[in-house]
Structure formats: structure tokens, C-alpha cells
Design brief:
single chain; alpha/beta; 11 helices
Length: about 280
């Protein structure tokens, strides 16, 4: 389906819908965009109506200058659901997307059927955490201006399990699972990339994320997908989320880094399908 736009909460959000069936929203991460789900859309849209969107400040959506908060991101999802006439849906979030989804289900529990949290956390112990992520992205933006290929491979070091990354380096044109190649991801990274302003504003939203004391109020069935070798979001943090959410299931994706939805796409996709169909 082609890209469409919805006017929501004073911003124009870009979204796409794939497939038919019960709706499933996929929420992307920090400095990313809806195409992050390139390895999920084909499989999942065979079973569900998959809705992907560019968050405010990302991709083809509006990038307002005002500060961002987790509540704003949550309200944007709610507004898009209203625009689409969807009362209730399954919802998945990866990294920052997982943080947004936590805030969404806490504010709009009646809108959520099942919840999926991928490589995320419940908050930061102090303000240094968001600063680390912000500085990583700002360094990547500077590098991308000079050499987008070098910038992508630099980011790959913290995104992929080392053995998998070595395979990517050995053959960047190899099509993984018939879904994506490193060369394709590099090309995607040059289209509608985040600016320094976008990164600063998204980092500001990270500082408003703290759900730990409220996680036990989430009653929705929840799947927690954690990568065994995630260098960006700790396994222990996700184990704590699992302990706090009463009706949750923890699945460890072995030999995978933060980008496990890409590197372990078949396993991740089947785990999601099985959970949502149970």
C-alpha cells in the first residue's frame, strides 16, 4: 500500500497499511523510521493488518520544533487509531518504540489487545542515559554527511551480534531471508534521515520515560523479546519488566544484538505470530 498521511495532534503523520485482519501497530526506535520493520512487514501482513508509521520527528512525518514527550508519542498513536477508525489493536514497539508503547498502554489500556516489547527499557537511572544515546546518534549524523556507508557500518557495531556482522561485512549484497541486505539498509539510511534537531528532541522525550512503578498495572498479555547480546538495552532491564508485568512472557533471541528483528527475522516473526494467535 502507498504512504498516506493523517493530521493528528497538530502534526502530519506518515503511515502505511499492509495486509488484512486484526490490526497490529509497529512503532519504531530512536533516530529510525517506519522502514525499520522491513523484515517484519511481509511475514506479519500475511496474518494481520499491519500499520507502520513515522513518529513525529522521523521519516516523512512532520518534525516540529517544540519539545517531545512520551505522552505526545502515545497521543499520536491514539490519534492515528481514531483517524483509521480502529478501536483496539495489538501493538509492538522496538527500542524507543517499546518505551512509547509502554506509555501508550498505561494511558490508553482500553485501546490495546496484546502488547509486544522488543529490546527496550522502563526508564533511565539518571540523565546520562539519554545523553549517551543522543551523542551516539549525533556522531552518526556527522559521519553520515562525510561517508554514509562508513556511518552505517559504525552503527552496525552496536546493533548486530559480532558473528552476524562479520557475515554482513563479507557479503554486503547478500539478501537475508529474502528480505534485506546490508546494501539496501545503507541506501535506506540515506533517505529522510534524522537531523541533529530531530535527535535532540527525541532524546528529550527519553528523559520523560519512567514506567517502572506502573508496570504492574498493565494487565494486557505481553510478549517481551530480548536479544542475548544487546549492547544498547540491557537484558536485565527487560527481565525486570517481565517480573513487573503480571501477564507477560519473556523470550530470549539467542546470538543477537539490538537489531534482532533484522538479524533473526524468521525467529522473531514466528514468535510474534504465535503469541498473537494464541
Amino acid at each position: 500500500m502507498t504512504e498516506q498521511y493523517a493530521n493528528v495532534n497538530g502534526v502530519k503523520l506518515c503511515y502505511e497499511v499492509f495486509g488484512d485482519g486484526y490490526p497490529l501497530f509497529l512503532i519504531h526506535g530512536f533516530g529510525a523510521k517506519k522502514e525499520s520493520w522491513i523484515a517484519q512487514i511481509p511475514d506479519l501482513s500475511n496474518h494481520f493488518k499491519v500499520i507502520v508509521l513515522d513518529n513525529r520527528g522521523a521519516g516523512k512525518s512532520d518534525r516540529p520544533d517544540s519539545e517531545y514527550t512520551m505522552e505526545m508519542f502515545a497521543d499520536d498513536i491514539n490519534g492515528l487509531m481514531e483517524h483509521l477508525g480502529i478501536e483496539k489493536a495489538n501493538i509492538a514497539g522496538w527500542s524507543l518504540g517499546g518505551m512509547i508503547v509502554q506509555n501508550f498502554v498505561l494511558k490508553y489500556p482500553e485501546r490495546v489487545n496484546k502488547l509486544i516489547l522488543i529490546n527496550t527499557n522502563y526508564g533511565f537511572p539518571d540523565e546520562s542515559g539519554p545523553e549517551v544515546y543522543k551523542n551516539m546518534r549525533l556522531d552518526e549524523i556527522k559521519m553520515k554527511k562525510e561517508d554514509p556507508v562508513k556511518a552505517w557500518w559504525s552503527g552496525a557495531r552496536s546493533s548486530f551480534y559480532i558473528k552476524f556482522r562479520k557475515q554482513l561485512e563479507a557479503d554486503p549484497s547478500k539478501k537475508w531471508y529474502g528480505l534485506w541486505s546490508a546494501e539496501e539498509l545503507i541506501e535506506l539510511s540515506t533517505i529522510d534521515p534524522p537531523t541533529e534537531k530531530d535527535v535532540n528532541l527525541q532524546a528529550g522525550a527519553l528523559k520523560t520515560h519512567n514506567t517502572f512503578d506502573r508496570l504492574d498495572t498493565i494487565k494486557n498479555p505481553t510478549l517481551i523479546l530480548v536479544a542475548s547480546h544487546d549492547r544498547l538495552m540491557s537484558k536485565s532491564s527487560m527481565e525486570q519488566i517481565h517480573e513487573k508485568i503480571p501477564n507477560s512472557k519473556l523470550v530470549v533471541i539467542d546470538k543477537a544484538g539490538h537489531s534482532s528483528p533484522l538479524s533473526k527475522a524468521p525467529e522473531v516473526n514466528q514468535t510474534i505470530i504465535d503469541f498473537l494467535k494464541a
